[in-house]
Each structure stands twice: as structure tokens, then as C-alpha cells.
Amino acid sequence: MSLRERAYESFTQHLLDRDLAPGQFVSQRELVELTGYPLGAVREMIPRLESDGLIRTVPHRGLQIAHVDMDLIRNAFQLRLLVEREAVAHFAQTAPAERIEALREAHLRVRALAERDVTPELNQKAQQLDWDLHDEMVASLGNALITDIYRVNSIKIRLIRTEDTRMLPELVVSVMDEHLALIEALAIRDKAASVAALEAHVESAKRRVVRV
């Protein structure tokens, strides 16, 4: 990877780690300190960040991290559904049976542990399990353009999420149940049921964001 690409990866990781807040203004020098990469690499990554919609340049003020508003929420979740509907329908037909069973077992283990006690470690494991399933389904399409678009949109989805919409301890069981409903549909190769389960899961996440 070039220094520009490494700086980009560092920036997006800090964004996901919430070291940067939506709407926050930062300077190029601050990005140098944050990412640990030289000013040249930071300057080179800025056009890509702007193209991805993760920052924007505001005259006389500097660089502003993407601001979370209803337009961003609506657009990001709409794009997520467009991509994931296609991905889950494909996954239902192509995923190996042993992989679907492994996903089922992983979710059941996390759910069983969560019914007793949701430790910070288990909470993080559940969150990663959630993200990984969606990423795996999209990756199964084998389309690099779609995967890249989805990756950037996923960053925006995670940027949108507040304390109320991340994987909170009390949400672990319900999210695992939503995933298990999807996995059951995948196991019987039912595309329509898989898409319906996915839509219900994504709509649940969106409701938490807009607090419906």
C-alpha cells in the first residue's frame, strides 16, 4: 500500500473508533498527528475522502467530518438495502451448507452467553459477528466495485450510529435472533425469505437510528 492508502486506512479507522466526531472540523496538521503519516500523504488522501463523502472542505474553516443528518441516514440505509438485497439472494443460492451451519453455531453460542451476561468482550464479539456476516454476503458477489461502494457506505452507517444504535448489551439477544432468522432462511435456500429477514433486520437498525 502507498503512504496515501495507509493514511486513508488510518483515518477511517480513527473515524470508526470515534476519535473524530461527525461535523468536527480538523486541519491537515491535526490529521498528520492523528494518522501518523506525513503531510504529503494526508494531502493526497483528502480528495479521496471528499469523493467518498467522508469529509468536505469548508472555505476559511478547514476540513469537516461528514455531518450526520436525515439525508445521510436515508441515503446510507437505502444504499445498504439495495446492495444487501442482491447479496443475500446470491448468498442463499451459493453459500456452502457447512458455512451456513458455522454461522448458525457462532450466533447460537453468542446468544446463549448473552442470556447469562453480556460482558464488554462478548458485546464486541457480537458486534463483529454482525458486521462480518453482512460483509461476507456482499463479498460473495465477487464484484470489486460493489464491495468498495459498500465499504464506504458501511463507514457512513457506523459514523451515523450513536450510543443508542450501536450493539448495546441489551440488544445482543435481539440482534442475534434477527440474524438467526436470516440464517434459517439461508439454510433452506429460500431467497424470498432471506431477503425478507434481511429487510426486517436493516429496518430495525434504521428505526434505532431515527428513534421511531
Automatic annotation (TrEMBL):
Organism: Pacificitalea manganoxidans
Protein name as catalogued: GntR family transcriptional regulator
SMART domains documented for this protein: FCD
GO molecular function: DNA binding; DNA-binding transcription factor activity
Key words, A-Z: DNA-binding, Transcription, Transcription regulation
Span of domain HTH gntR-type: 1-68
